[in-house]
């Protein structure tokens, strides 16, 4: 009878009977590993039958289920009360005597004497590919003696009912009566080093790479997030591709009873916890285990006396798909290509319409500017596409480079005149001219005008936009960059004392266009808060729903109040709705898709939202005080010098954002015109949807417009559009090189410009990402990867915003963000300017942030050093 009971309640570690139902997810996995002859520490399973018998004989089931039924997944107080009640119930019950005896007997066979063991929970819904219970149940290390082992087993059973475990099961829809728990008792490995091995790169999805995290001591310091581990990237053969040795400050060590965290000895903190041969050995074991499981796995391992032990293995959850590879063939043999300047506003592959309409007009405008300096058009930089990503072709032959170098003396006076007239050329000429073209095109009757006439309006708008941007690029932007840089350098080296504020203080608090837009939205929210019915609706409805309700009947009882809200919000869109998310006019704008903007308005309705008026006022007061102090302290020539420097920097600081905010001034009308053409092509059978018009090339649109106007049959582009969309989706999943050819530096006239590139390149795989420290400070928080405006609703207060770029239309998210990380950008880009206004750390131009960082992943942002540090990818028990 006893032997029969033992087979039901206790199993050998490698037993084929250790299935998911009997041994839980972790136990079944360890049984598979042990049976395959892998180096797993010896031990045994305490099956789910044991837990059920414990519950049954103590009559606990009814009380446990009754307490669990009172928990609500989104109400922490109810979760805590339910957990505390169930934990108390289990703690007060006794393990049946025969079960206690069986456990004691099997424990005596593990090691010698009172052997140190690990007592580990193993749930029946744990470590499955479709869900992850990891980190929710408990593990107890360095347990010695029969009594403490029995106590640890009961505590494992109780951990099935922690608040976080209850909440997780409620969200997953797992009924509490279906849950059970097994327990594993294993000999403790007195590890000198431990960590995690991923048999595929969990950051990039690359299947030909493995990632190893390693730290000193037991593995709890890593899985508990108490230490930043070393990160190895190795090939499947074990060849080291990269190694980042962390400053490992803490380690988990054994005590006579239990464990504790203690500092790593100074001599070992920056020493690698593994040798290359040990890393290669781990990779070989990882390959065997992956073959056993038939899929990529993550593996918990420990190193003791030069032997590697496997403590756990499970399929990797949420592994990114393998990133496609593209051939980055340059158009010209000796060309040099870089993603800089206006390309900071074009982070993704270009739509066919933008590529074939806008790029030629941008190049025409650039040619005119270059010729004004006396050069032929062949000397000018030109925008080209490689894999549909925009690049500047700035490579010159040796002869042309020499011609430019010889012309520098005569270029200086012309450049000085160009820069000195920066404001006049933009504010008095380019911007009014752009607005005039938009106003003229707006007079078209979109319903009756011939398609060719609508397209002429589109072309005129894009040409005016190109002229406007090139005027800004050749005036406002460089003057703003230079005036800030010159003032900062002079202030830091010639004027600043230890007690003085940083140079940045002199350049904040201005009323630029993005700040005005934020204040306008905030003011609308403040008005809405005075209308209870309206405020309740706005707070409860999603941004998409609010946008949809803006057109039909009022969603609240007070129809007049709703119409007033719509009127005020429409006024806001009329003023600021042309701010771009992306310069490619195929992408939506706040003017035609206000749902992302409404998500920001919902945040401003909350009590935690800070007034942008107060923030700006505080920054302006600090700026004025610092300026007055500086100018009062310095007299004479030096005083006049600093007055000129600070006034120049302060004049152009807000103009930079004002000018960039108007780049898309004509885009709302352009999109309306193209939508009308698209609708006509849908009726003609050329397209499946009106928005598909952006997937046609300009020559194709012109050709179909001619056919429409002459009542001829139009070509069917539906298959072509589908193919182009599929190619674009593939291309957008690739991180484009910042410079091409790949082996070339960004060199011009013998100068390496890579340090000023808008994105880093050649980043090693690992948990540390380098970029440009663009706004000072340090913060740790949860990453929120936002690819575009359709993801704005995912942002939560205190998240760290991770995106390819941010443009003026992204500004409302800065009110929620604790930090900013981007793929593209530098210390003078929009992200940097606005992050400083909000006093939040920013690391820009990483080149790889959106590819490496996962939403929900903990990370640290150091805006002083330009470093982003990722935490381990998932919690483990």
How would you describe what is shown here?
It is a single chain. The chain is built from 28 helices and 27 strands. The model is unreliable at 126-135 (pLDDT under 50). With 877 residues, the chain is of the alpha+beta class. Helix 5 runs antiparallel to helix 7 and helix 14 packs antiparallel against helix 23 (667-683). The two termini are 35 Å apart. Among the domains are: 2-187, ATP-grasp fold, A domain (Dna Ligase, domain 1), CATH 3.30.1490; 193-315, ATP-grasp fold, B domain (D-amino Acid Aminotransferase, Chain A, domain 1, 2-Layer Sandwich), CATH 3.30.470.20; 508-633, no CATH class; 758-870, Glucose Oxidase, domain 1. Helices cover 45% and strands 15% of the residues.
Features:
45% helix; six-stranded antiparallel β-sheet; globular; D-amino Acid Aminotransferase, Chain A, domain 1; 877 residues; eight-stranded mixed β-sheet; Dna Ligase, domain 1
């Amino acid at each position: 009878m006893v032997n029969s009971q033992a087979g039901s309640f206790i199993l050998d570690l490698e037993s084929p009977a250790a299935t998911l139902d009997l041994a839980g997810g972790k136990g079944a996995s360890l049984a598979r590993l042990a049976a395959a002859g892998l180096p797993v520490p010896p031990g045994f399973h305490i099956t789910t039958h044991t837990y059920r018998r414990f519950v049954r004989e103590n009559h606990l089931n009814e009380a446990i289920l009754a307490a669990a039924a009172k928990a609500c997944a989104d109400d922490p107080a109810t979760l805590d009360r339910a957990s505390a009640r169930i934990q108390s119930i289990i703690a007060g019950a006794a393990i049946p005597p025969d079960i206690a005896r069986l456990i004691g007997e099997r424990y005596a066979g593990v090691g010698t004497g009172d052997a140190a063991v690990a007592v580990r929970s193993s749930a029946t819904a744990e470590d499955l590919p479709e869900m992850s219970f990891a980190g929710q149940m408990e593990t107890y290390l360095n347990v010695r003696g029969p009594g403490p082992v029995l106590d640890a087993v009961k505590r494992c059973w109780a951990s099935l009912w922690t608040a976080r475990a209850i909440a997780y099961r409620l969200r997953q829809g797992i009924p509490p009566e279906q849950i059970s728990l097994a327990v594993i008792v294993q000999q403790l490995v007195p590890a000198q080093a431990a960590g995690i091995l991923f048999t595929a790169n969990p950051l990039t999805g690359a299947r030909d790479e493995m990632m190893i995290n390693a730290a000193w001591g037991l593995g709890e310091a890593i899985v508990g997030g108490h230490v930043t581990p070393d990160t190895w990237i190795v090939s499947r053969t074990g060849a080291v591709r990269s190694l980042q040795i962390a400053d490992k400050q803490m380690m988990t060590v054994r005590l006579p009873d239990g464990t504790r965290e203690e500092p790593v000895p100074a001599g070992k903190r920056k020493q690698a916890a593994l040798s290359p041969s040990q890393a290669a050995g781990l990779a070989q074991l990882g390959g065997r285990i992956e073959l056993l499981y038939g899929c990529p796995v993550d593996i918990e391992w420990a190193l003791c006396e030069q032997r590697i032990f496997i403590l756990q293995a499970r399929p990797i959850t949420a592994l990114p798909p393998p990133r496609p590879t593209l051939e980055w063939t340059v158009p010209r043999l000796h060309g040099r290509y870089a993603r800089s300047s206006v390309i900071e506003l074009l982070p993704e592959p270009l739509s066919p319409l933008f590529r074939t309409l806008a790029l030629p007009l941008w190049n025409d405008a650039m040619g005119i500017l270059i010729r004004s300096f006396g050069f032929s058009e062949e000397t000018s930089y030109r925008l080209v596409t490689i894999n549909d990503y925009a690049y500047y072709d700035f490579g010159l032959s040796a002869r042309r480079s020499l011609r430019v170098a010889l012309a520098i003396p005569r270029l200086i006076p012309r450049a000085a005149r160009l820069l000195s007239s920066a404001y006049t050329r933009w504010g008095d000429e380019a911007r009014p001219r752009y607005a005039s073209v938009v106003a003229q095109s707006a007079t078209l009757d979109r319903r009756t005008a011939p398609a060719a006439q609508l397209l002429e309006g589109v072309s005129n708008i894009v040409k005016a936009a190109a002229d406007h941007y090139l005027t800004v690029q050749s005036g406002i932007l460089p003057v703003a960059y230079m005036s800030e840089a010159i003032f900062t350098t002079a202030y830091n080296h010639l004027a600043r004392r230890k007690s003085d504020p940083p140079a940045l203080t002199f350049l904040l608090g201005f009323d630029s266009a993005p700040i005005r837009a934020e204040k306008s939205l905030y003011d609308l929210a403040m008005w809405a808060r005075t209308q209870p019915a309206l405020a309740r609706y706005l707070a409860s409805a999603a941004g998409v729903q609010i946008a949809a309700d803006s057109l039909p009947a009022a969603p609240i009882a007070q129809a007049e109040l709703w119409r007033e809200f719509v009127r005020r919000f429409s006024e806001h869109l009329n003023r600021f709705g042309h701010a771009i998310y992306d310069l490619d006019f195929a992408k939506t704008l706040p003017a035609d898709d206000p749902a992302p903007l409404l998500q920001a308005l919902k945040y401003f309705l909350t009590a935690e939202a800070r007034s942008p008026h107060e923030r700006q006022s505080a920054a302006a007061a600090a700026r004025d005080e610092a300026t007055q102090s500086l100018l009062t302290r310095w007299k004479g020539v030096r005083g006049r010098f600093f007055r000129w420097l600070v006034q120049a920097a302060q004049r152009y600081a807000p103009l930079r954002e004002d000018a960039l905010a108007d780049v898309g001034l004509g885009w709302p009308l352009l999109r309306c015109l193209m939508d009308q053409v698209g609708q006509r092509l849908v009726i003609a059978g050329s397209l499946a949807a009106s928005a598909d018009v952006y997937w046609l090339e300009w020559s194709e649109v012109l050709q179909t417009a001619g056919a429409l106007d002459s009542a001829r049959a139009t070509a069917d582009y539906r298959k072509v559009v589908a193919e182009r969309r599929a190619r674009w989706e593939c291309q957008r999943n690739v991180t484009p090189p910042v410079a091409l050819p790949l082996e070339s530096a960004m060199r011009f006239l013998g100068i390496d410009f890579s340090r000023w590139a808008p994105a880093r390149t050649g980043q090693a795989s690992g948990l540390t990402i380098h970029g440009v420290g663009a706004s000072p400070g340090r913060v740790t928080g949860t990453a929120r990867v936002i690819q575009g405006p359709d993801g704005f609703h995912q942002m939560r207060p205190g998240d760290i915003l991770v995106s390819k770029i941010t443009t003026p239309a992204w500004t409302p998210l800065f009110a929620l963000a604790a930090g900013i990380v981007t793929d593209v950008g530098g210390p003078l880009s929009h992200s940097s300017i606005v992050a400083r206004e909000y006093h939040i750390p920013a690391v820009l131009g990483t080149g790889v942030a959106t590819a490496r960082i996962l939403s929900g992943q903990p990370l640290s942002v150091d805006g002083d050093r330009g470093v982003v540090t990722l935490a381990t990818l998932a919690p483990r028990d």
